[in-house]
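Morning F.,

Quick status update on the modeling queue. The single chain you submitted on Monday has been processed. Sequence for confirmation:
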Amino acid sequence: MSAEATNPVSAAEAAGPDAPSRRRARPRIDLRRLGRAALLGPGARGDRLPDAIGHVAEAHRAHHPDADLAVLRRAYVLAESSHRGQFRKSGEPYITHPLAVTLILAELGAETTTLTAALLHDTVEDTEVTLDQVREQFGDEVAYLVDGVTKVEKIDYGAAAEPETFRKMLVATGNDVRVMSIKLADRLHNMRTLGVMRPEKQVRIAKVTRDVLIPLAERLGVQALKTELEDLVFAILHPEEYERTRALIADNTGAGDALAAIAESVSAVLRDADIAAEVLVRPRHFVSVHRVRLKRGDLRGSDFGRLLVLVAEDADCYAVLGELHTCFTPVISEFKDFIATPKFNLYQSLHTAVAAPDGAVAEVLIRTHQMHKVAEAGVVALGNPYTPPAGGDGADPAEDGERADPTRPGWLSRLLDWQQSTPDPDTFWTSLRADLAEDQEITVFRADGGMLGLPAGASCVDAAYAQYGAAGHSCLGARVNGRLATLSTVLNDGDTVQLLLAQDSTSGPSPGWLEHARTPAARIAITAWLQAHPEAAGAPEADPRPPVSVTADRRSGARLRADLPGAEATAVRPAGCCTPVPPDEITGFQVRGGSVTVHRTGCASVDTMRRLGRAPVTVHWGDTAECRVTLVAEAFGRPRLLADLTEAIAAADVAVVSATVEPPNEQRVRHTYTLQLPDAAGLPSLMRAMRDVAGVYDVSRAQHPATPGI
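Structure tokens below.
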């Protein structure tokens, strides 16, 4: 239900510094200047609004020249007649509210179906009009949107009801992002007209807007809505800071001149480079000025706005960047490329900053006209994302009730998945606010070529549940960029992740996983499993068991020769720490008893021996290719694993000198084999054969620390 009052922040104040005149590209959507006069028109009186729908039609045609306006006129007639006699507390006819919501969306570029639903969004809730009547006159798609908004509006915004309110809103949004677009526009108009409400109610609504709706506007990419909502919330929750910022802007009315001078220089540089571009000055909104002041202290004229460079093609963006960094002094720390790596809310742009000859620094945004449209309006600018079902009439959803939304951001899909697993509204509310507080997202690549979108700081635990859902319970580890990693490993943007799952489907997470889970999906799934398996959550760690050793026939290793007077071949032996085999590069050291131990040249023990002052001894491989080597096989525990590994070793005609099986740790086991090979050339093929055994995920040469001087 809409709030009814006067605006606590005037449209003129919220506009900030004087903006440049609008040009044909419509670069800046300034919703603050769309006030009551624009809605009512010059000839309006009483409850008759003859010109109001004309303003909506004009804004709509600016984005959709071929749009059929007949349906908008019919929707206006129904809404106006239904709300006739209803008034807002400010004395305005109630129809001004749905008209304001519709005009906001029209300025953002919403398509006709969304605008029709916006005009009618309060009719089913507040008038005698039924949903069936809406469906009969305007079709299933409009009825679906109106019903989604109505379900949200029917919930009281009391403090106890907030969790369930926004849960239902997100469920409706998940089926159609346009429901959220209408809700955001509805909240914006309500925030504009919040002044006559009690101060405590203003504060409560402003806090909910700050905590949930502004982050959702950011996630949906609707920056034009987000920035005005931020300013309105700022004025209510921080009135002193707001007044200080307003005064600061008022005292710097000529601040735009500094940026205008830099803009002229940038335009001249791009003209000389034969790059067609439009260079505009974008004044910062109130909250942005406040943040810059906190960051930089005293502000210069160029700090009150940014430059926006609009071009036609992606390649032109990088051409502009090259010219700016060549002709001006760039501030390298300010450069960000959101074209190559778009933000989670579809945002694309190049960000940089350049210094003018007088030392003034100007932040510059470089993007195409289409990127700018999406940056300002987000998913609203993408039109109707739903493809009609085959053989349908273009309006009905798919028969199974599922609506495939190609514009739905990955974060929203994940949020909708985990909210279904959270029956407790308080838990949902806490998880929702934590998830919305994450303002950065990373993309990691799966081993099969797919991608996962995760919040910054996510670990392999989060990736496991994001990729496999409940099957993530059996995850035992991962390879990150080809290297083995623990589940607690924090992922970085662009990492490649291969998750390793146990074959035992009954395995599950430990309570320690919660320490590494960043996403609500992972935390909720882990908590639910632990609650369903209390014996696992409270089970003590297993007592350590001694290794199990198996000893086999021992044969002599590969022949080694040392260039040491009086040393015989029998006095030369390979070191157990690195187990060198032909044709490894080797070096030796004489140890107690006169014998010589031989190490691979890259072994850590070589550096230790040198630090202890031991002189290296030159050693050579003898004529025989026979050798002894120690291999470590890491695998998931399963029955017959030892037998299968031993069989693979025997099939390669290799003798097992000894084998050690360590006790399982989180269902992972380590087998260490000392093997006698008839020919060192067969070592690579042996290691491949061992890796091919089911459950084995790595086989490597042993690297055990040795004790010097033994």
